[in-house]
Design a protein that fits this description.
about 150 residues, single chain, mainly alpha
Length: about 150
């Protein structure tokens, strides 16, 4: 029993001696840059914007509709607050949230949300195996998938 107490005491002493000082940890955290601006460079690719969506109609009701303001505000919050914290870059040239904004502006709310949902189901590592080589941009190494592909061609 005496050996167990001595062993526990020895472990506590050794741990206290070799533990890092919290002051040095705090100063290390304050001076370390955990991400670079280049980590979010995919937002500077063509077609990406963190600006608020614009209404097509100039009327008062269309601009200040509570539902559209809620949806636009949630998209802005995601792009400017949540997405930079996730730090997982989108493999597509136009990020998925910008693709959703452009699709809704081009095709309307119903078709735009359906196209955006389709895109979100394809934005994972498993589905990237099925992307044709012609869809890759050799300069940026991103997948080219503009919303214009979803129009009906004659």
């Amino acid at each position: 029993m005496k050996k167990i107490y001595l062993t526990a005491l020895l472990i506590c002493v050794v741990q206290a001696v070799f533990a890092q000082l919290s002051l040095s940890d705090d100063s290390l955290i304050e001076t370390t840059a955990f991400y670079q601006k280049s980590d979010f460079s995919f937002y500077s690719l063509p077609g990406n914007s963190t600006a608020m969506m614009k209404s097509r109609k100039a009327g008062f009701v269309a601009r200040f509709n509570p539902v559209s303001l809620l949806l636009k505000g949630s998209m802005w919050t995601y792009q400017n607050i949540i997405s930079p914290e996730l730090s997982s870059p989108c493999p597509y040239q136009i990020s998925c949230s910008n693709f959703a904004k452009q699709s809704i502006q081009d095709f309307g709310i119903i078709k735009g949300m359906a196209i955006a949902a389709d895109r979100l189901t394809r934005c994972n590592r498993i589905s990237l195996l099925d992307v044709p080589a012609i869809d890759f941009d050799p300069e940026t190494h991103h997948i080219i998938d503009p919303p214009g592909r979803y129009t009906r061609r004659p």
